[in-house]
Design a protein that fits this description.
Elements (H helix, E strand, L loop, with lengths): L2 H19 L2 H12 L7 H16 L4 E13 L5 E7 L2 E4 L2 E3 L11 E8 L3 H11 L3 E4 L10 H6 L3 H11 L5 E5 L27 E4 L1 H13 L4 E5 L3 E15 L4 E11 L9 H21 L5 E8 L7 H13 L2 E7 L7 E7 L2 H8 L2 H4 L6 E4 L15 E7 L4 H4 L12 H21 L6 H6 L1
Parallel strand pairs: 5-6, 6-7, 7-8, 11-12, 11-13, 13-16, 14-15
Antiparallel strand pairs: 1-10, 2-3, 2-9, 4-8, 5-9, 10-12, 14-16
Helix pairs in contact: 1-8, 1-13, 2-8, 8-13
Length: 453
């Protein structure tokens, strides 16, 4: 049997097993509905560690272990409250959520006039005279004309992450940020933010506002620049606590020293149950190892599933895994991450040398029966990024992204929004790529350089 025919038959087995006898959807059901949101340092995050470790042990892997990692612990506290006051006694409640890492407002809340800006670069234009004592309203929307929604997200997420630190320099008393969402709805979308080197005493509260309410606030400001905005946040930053990466391994049958990784992040934000971000990636990665065992494929290289802790507000898990791997002198050759939701898979992006990418492209025909067409050089994933060194190829699963930011970091990121078939197709697509990497290997790009040294 020709190699290409054998590969085609193996991919068919993998897809059949995932679609007809998959486990990923059941695992996600438990993570989402029995455990829920899994913010780093929370009780739910620890429950998720224990649950996934137990499930990996049931698969009969060669090794399953926990890798300790210190993670930040931030709590939201009582639900946030906010309103717009257009005149004395005339108010309209609006939907907000504290950004992850924000300080709380004073006990009585924060109330001030509002200045609307379109991004961080606008702050200098308005200056301290116009900003001091006000709440800065960052209202740059995600660009709807960009087909790649992650590009649209990247174009405005700086105002969420750094907006409070920058606005504080001009004397602002707080910031409100338009949610990173392409559709109009009432869900505020949280997310990580930081204060940089801003002294604790100078830090100001930061919250996201829903897209519907952002549009309302912007419209009413055009008619009444003297309106006031009130909000109360009850969040708190605590001391770091110990958590864990969850790791399972099938030891390679021929080249155990060469390590391949599949993974997603176990933590999530606390507003929903984190089904798309990133419960889907967690269960798909676990499913890769289960599928190999079910179809009777024994990897030549060592295959690990790594369920990373603390991607959302620190990336501690990804950094710790890479640090330990380097200390031990481990040789990683490939790492694949799923952290773009459980939607229909379209393909992969690769952080690879051109020669390696050319080799990967030679496998593209094998994926066409499954409507997988997207093979591009680009970013892989945040958690596998720290592994980038030498010959290692990094990859990211790329599902259809048009609906992803409807749910990203919001209360509607729930199990009901994940389609079972789409989730299972993603798991099979990941397993198929890992099989091809394992069966054919990847080009060594640094051999010549090493010989010259």
């Amino acid at each position: 049997m020709k190699a290409e025919e054998a590969d085609s038959l193996m991919l068919r087995k993998i897809y059949d097993m995932s679609l007809l006898n998959g486990k990923s959807y059941d695992w996600l059901d438990y993570l989402s509905n029995k455990i829920g949101g899994r913010l780093s340092g929370s009780y739910q995050a620890q429950q998720a560690v224990e649950y996934t470790k137990a499930q990996l042990e049931e698969l009969g892997l060669d090794k399953v272990w926990l890798q300790p990692v210190m993670v930040p612990k931030w709590t939201r506290g009582a639900k946030e409250f906010a309103y717009v006051q257009t005149s004395p006694g005339v108010t309209k409640n609006v939907n907000i959520a504290a950004l992850g890492g924000s300080v709380a407002t004073p006990a009585g809340g924060t109330k001030a006039r509002v200045i609307e800006v379109q991004g961080i670069e606008d702050l200098e234009r308005y200056g301290k005279e116009q900003i001091q004592g006000k709440i800065v309203f960052f209202n740059r929307p995600m660009r709807a004309d960009l087909i790649n929604t992650f590009e649209a997200y990247g174009g405005c997420v700086d105002q969420r992450y750094s907006g409070a630190a920058e606005a504080a320099k001009y004397g602002a008393v707080g910031v409100i940020v338009r949610s990173m969402n392409l559709r109009m709805d009432d869900f505020p979308h949280t997310g990580s933010m930081g204060y940089g080197d801003t002294p604790v005493s100078k830090r100001i509260p930061a919250a996201a506002i829903s897209t519907n309410d952002a549009s309302y606030l912007s419209g009413i400001l055009k008619m009444n620049k003297d309106l006031e905005f009130y909000y109360k946040l009850n969040c708190e930053q605590h001391e770091d606590v110990q958590s864990y990466n969850v790791i399972g391994e099938i030891t390679g049958s021929e080249n155990p020293e060469e390590i391949m990784v599949v993974g997603g992040h176990l933590d999530s934000w606390d507003l929903g149950d984190g089904s798309h971000d990133d419960g889907a990636g967690v269960v798909q990665s676990m499913e890769v190892l289960r599928l190999f065992k079910e179809v009777g494929y024994k990897p030549r290289k060592t295959l690990r599933v790594v369920l990373f802790m603390n991607e959302e507000n620190g990336l501690r898990g990804g950094k710790k895994y890479a640090e330990v791997a380097k200390t031990k002198g481990e040789h990683h050759v490939f790492a694949l991450e799923s952290d773009s939701g459980g939607f229909t898979p379209r393909g992969f992006s690769f952080d690879a040398d051109k020669a390696q990418f050319a080799q990967i492209l030679s496998w593209q025909e094998l994926f066409k029966p499954y409507l997988i067409h997207y093979f591009e050089l680009g970013e892989s994933g945040a958690d596998v990024g720290p592994l980038k060194e030498g010959d290692v190829v990094l990859a990211g699963l790329r599902p259809d992204s048009q609906r992803y930011f409807d749910y990203h970091h919001a209360a509607n990121d729930t199990f009901e929004e994940v389609n079972k078939r789409e989730l299972e197709l993603g798991a099979a697509t990941m397993a198929s790529l890992v099989y091809l990497v394992d069966n054919h290997g990847l080009k060594q790009i640094n051999t010549a350089k090493k010989e010259k040294m």
